[in-house]
């Protein structure tokens, strides 16, 4: 069974519309610590309130409010990593009025509380591990074929199945693949509970991205509303691309992607697709993550 639930962006071809949404996103990054209303965002995009809300979701996959919340948590992660400010100070600095609300949402999104995240990035806590495959009658399998853009460098790719279009909260299944970037690779994610999910792929290089919000340079893709059922495996295809301003920030504390081993040419089958055998599912210890 094959499915392709790639994010559909009806108006993405309209350069003026995309630029309008990017202006609103820039406004969010500049004002995330303030109470930002939908009216303010639509005005920054020079669009009507209704048209803005609809188009924003079509292009980013999430509502303006969810994008704003993601930016706040992303910036909280940055402050926890780069400053010695207290968690209370950081919660107010990113726009929260309640420490409890901030801590709860941070924990749900990142997969750990702020204090543990700070210890993790300082090397005083264990790296998060990948979920284990569980074989149960109510679980299925997704077989994902990943392709790469022309000239793509060697990547370490994190593949995960998540409950949200934003890469947040712990995944129900995940693996890590080292890819040379030349050949498509096939990744099998097992133990996925039956239901509708979002498949996320994030590949990182050693190259620093010119955008201040993404380091190292990221290649991403997402499949929306993929249904895993009794008919397994579900076969889907993804093609990584450089991250864009319209991609919501990555919130979940991913295992390290920065430390890349020397690229290895994958063994290819008769279909020209490499296997993930021997390169997948390794928890990465004593290392940092994006």
Automatic annotation (TrEMBL):
GO molecular function, one term: DNA-binding transcription factor activity
Annotated stretches, region: Disordered: 262-290
Keyword S-adenosyl-L-methionine: no
Biased composition (Low complexity): 266-281
Keywords tagged on the record: DNA-binding, Transcription, Transcription regulation
Keyword Membrane belongs to the record: no
Domain HTH araC/xylS-type span(s) in chain numbering: 22-120
InterPro entries reported in the protein's UniProt record: AraC_XylS_family_regulators, Homeodomain-like_sf, HTH_AraC, HTH_AraC-typ_CS
UniProt-listed PANTHER family: HTH-TYPE TRANSCRIPTIONAL ACTIVATOR RHAS-RELATED (PTHR46796)
Protein name stated in the entry: AraC family transcriptional regulator
Species the sequence originates in: Streptomyces sp. NBC_00008
């Amino acid at each position: 069974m094959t499915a392709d639930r790639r994010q559909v962006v009806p108006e993405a071809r309209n350069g003026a519309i995309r630029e309008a949404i990017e202006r609103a996103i820039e406004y969010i990054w500049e004002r995330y610590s303030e109470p930002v209303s939908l009216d303010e965002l639509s005005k920054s995009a020079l669009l009507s309130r209704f048209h803005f809300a609809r188009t924003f979701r079509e292009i980013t996959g999430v509502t303006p409010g969810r994008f704003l919340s993601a930016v706040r948590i992303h910036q909280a992660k940055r402050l926890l990593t780069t400053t010695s400010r207290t968690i209370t100070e950081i919660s107010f600095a990113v726009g929260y009025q309640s420490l409890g609300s901030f801590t709860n949402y941070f924990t749900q999104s990142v997969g750990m509380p702020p204090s543990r995240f700070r210890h993790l990035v300082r090397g005083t806590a264990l790296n998060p591990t990948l979920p284990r495959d569980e074989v149960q009658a109510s679980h299925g399998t997704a077989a994902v074929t990943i392709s790469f853009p022309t000239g793509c460098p060697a990547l370490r790719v994190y593949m995960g199945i998540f409950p949200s279009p934003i890469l947040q909260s712990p995944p129900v299944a995940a693996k890590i693949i080292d890819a040379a970037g030349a050949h498509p690779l096939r990744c099998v994610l097992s133990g996925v509970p039956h239901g509708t999910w979002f498949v996320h792929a994030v590949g990182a290089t050693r190259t620093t991205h010119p955008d201040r919000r993404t380091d190292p340079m990221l290649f991403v893709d997402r499949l929306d509303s993929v249904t895993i059922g009794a008919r397994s495996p579900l076969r889907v295809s993804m093609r990584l691309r450089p991250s864009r301003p319209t991609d919501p920030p990555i919130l979940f504390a991913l295992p390290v992607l920065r430390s890349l081993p020397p690229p290895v040419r994958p063994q290819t089958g008769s279909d020209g697709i490499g296997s993930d055998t021997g390169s997948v599912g390794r928890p990465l210890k004593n290392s940092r993550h994006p």
